[in-house]
Design goal:
Layout: H1 8-15, H2 24-70, H3 81-98, H4 118-123, H5 127-134, H6 139-149, H7 151-161, H8 176-181, E1 194-195, H9 208-214, E2 217-223, H10 224-227, H11 229-237, E3 257-262, E4 269-275, H12 276-305
Antiparallel strand pairs: 1-3, 2-4, 3-4
Helix pairs in contact: 1-2
């Protein structure tokens, strides 16, 4: 950012008050020096401000990149809209959790408050007392009558005598990896979608690729738009919901199994998986074979040269 530089003529006009005298030359020189000083100061201030704004811009870009990474977004999408949408989705999930049961009671058990409500205490009374208190519309009076009846103390004693609830059983994922990697007959519904019967139902926003990687399964996604572009174009233009015409192409390599065909905002997508450890061992074996072939070829070339 460059400030407009004052010309000597403009400075002379400032210095010339119309009454030049013997000291006019000295006065004009001082005005020139002052104007140049002000000009330099303004330029330095503007350059410092530009440098500060540049640093702030780069810092903001870095922060946005970190936010994109934390939210699992593609940085190439750019703009604030994907971030805002992800935040709104998180807020919706938090709101849903706030309205759901935070604690699930074990089977055969029921959660009750440690301080009984008036309705709970009335239910413990005999018929006549219960009928009388149930008709009392004054909550304060009802509370005093219940306190006098001693039913609250009995309820407290009942809670103290209650056994400890068994710990809730942990979700068991043992054997899931083997089930997902066992070849099976692919059954697609009437519209072409399919789901692995053992693939767990996860919360919205769960990263399926990370979940599979944690199980030692290498994931790969194949979208219909890149795999069968002609049909994908017609699928979007005509608003189709049937993808049976598309048979997903497995990724390059061996051992891939089709796990799911599901719909996304960008159209149908297929999820493949394979044994991560076996894939790594296969790559090692392939590299070993290639190295062995190169050694043999080098030895053969050396023998031919002799």
């Amino acid at each position: 950012m460059d400030a407009k530089k004052l010309t000597d003529v403009e400075i002379d006009l400032i210095a010339n008050d119309g009454m030049r005298n013997a000291a006019g030359g000295i006065y004009s020189t001082r005005v020139h020096e002052f104007a140049r000083g002000v000009e330099a100061a303004v330029r330095d201030a503007l350059e410092a401000e530009l440098a500060s704004m540049t640093r702030m811009f780069h810092a903001a870009c870095a922060d946005l990149g970190a936010i994109n990474e934390a939210l699992g977004l593609d940085p190439d999408d750019g703009g604030a809209e994907p971030i805002i949408e992800a935040i709104e989705e998180l807020k919706a999930q938090i709101a849903a959790l706030a309205h759901s049961d935070a604690v699930q009671a074990p089977s055969g058990w029921k959660l009750v408050p440690t301080k009984a409500t008036n309705e709970m205490l009335i239910a413990l009374l005999s018929g006549g007392e219960a009928d009388a208190l149930a008709g009392c519309k004054d909550g304060y009076i009802a509370s005093r009558l219940l306190e006098a009846s001693g039913v609250a103390a009995r309820f407290s004693a009942m809670l103290n005598a209650a056994p400890v609830a068994p710990a809730a059983a942990a979700i068991n994922l043992e054997g899931l990896r083997k089930k997902l990697l066992t070849p099976r007959k692919i059954l697609r519904d009437e519209q072409g979608w399919c789901w692995h019967p053992d693939y767990p139902i996860c919360d919205e926003g769960t990263r399926g690729d990370k979940f599979l990687e944690a199980l030692g399964i290498e994931p790969a996604f194949v979208d219909m738009e890149s795999d069968l572009p002609d049909f994908a174009e017609r699928y979007h233009e005509e608003g189709l919901t049937d993808c049976t015409e598309w048979t997903p192409t497995p990724p390059a390599g061996e051992g891939w199994l089709l796990l799911e065909i599901y719909d996304t905002e960008d159209g149908p997508c297929a999820l493949f998986g394979r044994d991560q450890y076996e894939a790594e061992n296969a790559q090692k074996r392939q590299r070993t074979r290639e190295l062995s072939e190169r050694i043999k070829q080098r030895q053969a070339d050396k023998g031919a040269a002799q």
